[in-house]
Automatic annotation (TrEMBL):
Residues 8-274 form the Pyruvate carboxyltransferase domain. PANTHER family: HYDROXYMETHYLGLUTARYL-COA LYASE. Pfam families: HMGL-like. This is Hydroxymethylglutaryl-CoA lyase. GO terms for molecular function: lyase activity. Gene3D superfamilies: Aldolase class I.
Amino acid sequence: MLSIPKKVEIIEVGPRDGLQNEPRPIPTGQKKELISGLAKAGFSRLEATAFVHPKWVPQMSDAEEIAAYCNQLGIPYIALTPNLKSLERAIAANVKQIAVFVGASTAFNMKNINKTTKQSLDECEIIFEKAKDRNMFIRAYVSTAFSCPYQGDVSFDELNEVCKRFVRLGADEIDLGDTNGFANPQIVYDRFSRLKELYPDAVFVGHFHDTKKMALANVLAALLAGIDKFDSSIGGLGGCPFSPGAKGNAATEELIWMFNEMGVETGIAYERLEGVSAFAKSLSTRLANY
Ligand code: HMG
Ligand code: MG
């Protein structure tokens, strides 16, 4: 028997990561329909939107309206807040769970949020302080945790520099992003195992993109390293506008199917995903090109 957790949490990131890179502006009403369908499917929380600059990511320009809709539905959700301005917007929108994201590789971080890794981490000091004053839950992404679309390989030390800071700042969870989808099960197992040994009290999450069709294998490798929280996107949508060529996130349906068949509890019935998955795919023009 494999030695693995009995229960996992699947965090659905489709409304945010899934849609952010779609070239066609998706009407806010259709995003709400997607969120409502996902909420009904039983996810414990969703990543709903991002308070980023509408010029940088036009698809997320309705963040305030999406947050208001999630508040109205009463579902737990996360919104991305990479800088202080975005935190102010999230606070004004009554968001309770935020996510910061910092690239282990400065080359990526510059393209993504126009700051070096160190500058972003310094800004996180203030973001964390303000968010903690308001009892917000803080997810801290380390993007390019394994590999970078601009720099290539990312070392364990580069990854650990960011993790160390997030642990010190008191992140509620640290999410390792395989932003360009170049990770493999060996590096995933090694890095999660080492980080768990270094920071036994920290909570880690796996966030894999499926560029090389390794997302599910990487989820399994992380599971074997004791990770029990995974991000995924309904229909396998997703990709970062600043990681050229990156494909969608690990597909929610595939994770749910695998875990349910393995007897690992997810709290989500596979059959409940069918309708919402078809709807999510109908919103995407990128999927057709995968
Ligand atoms: P910037 O241009 O460097 O911002 O953008 P700035 O501080 O220089 O300010 C310039 C102007 O923008 C100012 O306005 C600010 O007020 C305004 P002005 O005074 O000129 O009128 N501004 C804002 N307006 C609205 N919302 C804001 C905001 N901030 C400043 N938040 C910024 C910096 C971070 C905003 C920009 O780089 C940005 O929006 N980047 C988008 C990053 C992004 O969304 N990437 C995709 C998500 S990350 C991802 O996909 C990876 C992940 O999935 C994990 C993985 O896969 O690894 C999470
Ligand atoms: Mg991502």
